[in-house]
């Protein structure tokens, strides 16, 4: 599939952990379809502010789990503040930014639709629709697994949300399943 991306604006990748958002974007960098500097990755901003991109909170006792969850929440909140400021700056400069985060909740997507409107730039959604089975297999094989429970929760939320995304105000939406994603490439300036 041909993904046509305008010369300026925001491109939101949408998909659960392990759907392959970062892998796809890095492949596009290798193919010189996009620049590395055009990617805003929530994992990288978490690393930047907190030296880690994930804190496992679900495999602990309820008390420990609560403390770790709060730590992860704070880490994410600091990371997103910084990332969103960078995205706004890039919009002001009429640059294109590919946002690499799950964007599973409608308020997470709404935030970027409002930023795009504020700066009068287009916003595109690229939805990675990958089976739960594949997400779980990839998770068990990755260096820092997110955990079965978390992946299942994300998949359920994704299944519910993907039906309503088309009504949210994106200028263009691309739906990619596993096969389409394997053959997808990005066309610029469209
Ligand atoms: P997260 O939201 O957790 O950052 P993500 O959607 O960005 O996840 P990636 O980081 O790209 O996903 O990939 C997660 C794992 O899945 C990695 O181990 C990666 O190698 C594997 N993976 C991603 N895409 C594919 C693919 N097309 N085929 C096989 N494995 C893949």
What report would you give on this structure?
- The protein has helices at 21-30, 42-50, 62-92, 106-118, 132-141, 148-161, 178-183, and strands at residues 2-5, 9-14, 39-41, 96-100, 123-128, 172-176, 185-188.
- It has 190 residues and is an alpha/beta fold.
- It has a 5-stranded parallel sheet with strand order 3-4-2-5-6, sandwiched between helices. It has a two-stranded parallel sheet with strand order 1-7.
- The mean pLDDT is 95.
- It binds adenosine-5'-triphosphate (ATP).
- Residues 15, 17-23, 43, 102, 138, 142, 146 line the site of adenosine-5'-triphosphate (ATP).
What labels would you give this structure?
190 residues, globular, binds adenosine-5'-triphosphate
SSE order and pairing:
Blueprint: E1 2-5, E2 9-14, H1 21-30, E3 39-41, H2 42-50, H3 62-92, E4 96-100, H4 106-118, E5 123-128, H5 132-141, H6 148-161, E6 172-176, H7 178-183, E7 185-188
Parallel strand pairs: 1-7, 2-4, 2-5, 3-4, 5-6
Helix pairs in contact: 2-3, 5-6
The structure holds adenosine-5'-triphosphate.
Adenosine-5'-triphosphate is lined by residues 15, 17-23, 43, 102, 138, 142, 146.
């Amino acid at each position: 599939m041909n993904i046509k991306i305008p010369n300026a604006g925001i491109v939101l990748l949408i998909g659960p952990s392990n759907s392959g958002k970062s892998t796809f974007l890095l492949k596009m960098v290798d193919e010189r379809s996009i620049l590395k500097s055009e990617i805003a990755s929530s994992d990288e901003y978490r690393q930047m502010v907190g030296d880690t991109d994930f804190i496992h909170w679900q495999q602990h006792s309820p008390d420990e789990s609560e403390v770790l969850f709060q730590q992860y929440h704070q880490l994410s909140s600091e990371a997103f503040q910084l990332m969103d400021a960078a995205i706004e700056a890039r919009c002001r400069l009429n640059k294109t930014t590919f946002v690499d985060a799950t964007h599973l909740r409608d308020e997470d997507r709404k935030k970027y639709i409002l930023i795009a409107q504020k700066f009068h730039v287009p916003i595109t959604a690229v939805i990675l629709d990958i089976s739960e089975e594949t997400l779980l297999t990839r998770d068990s094989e990755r260096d820092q697994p997110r955990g079965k429970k978390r992946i299942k929760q994300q998949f359920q939320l994704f299944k519910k949300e993907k039906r309503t995304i088309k009504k949210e105000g994106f200028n263009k939406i691309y739906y990619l399943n596993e096969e389409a994603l394997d053959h997808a490439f990005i066309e610029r300036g469209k």
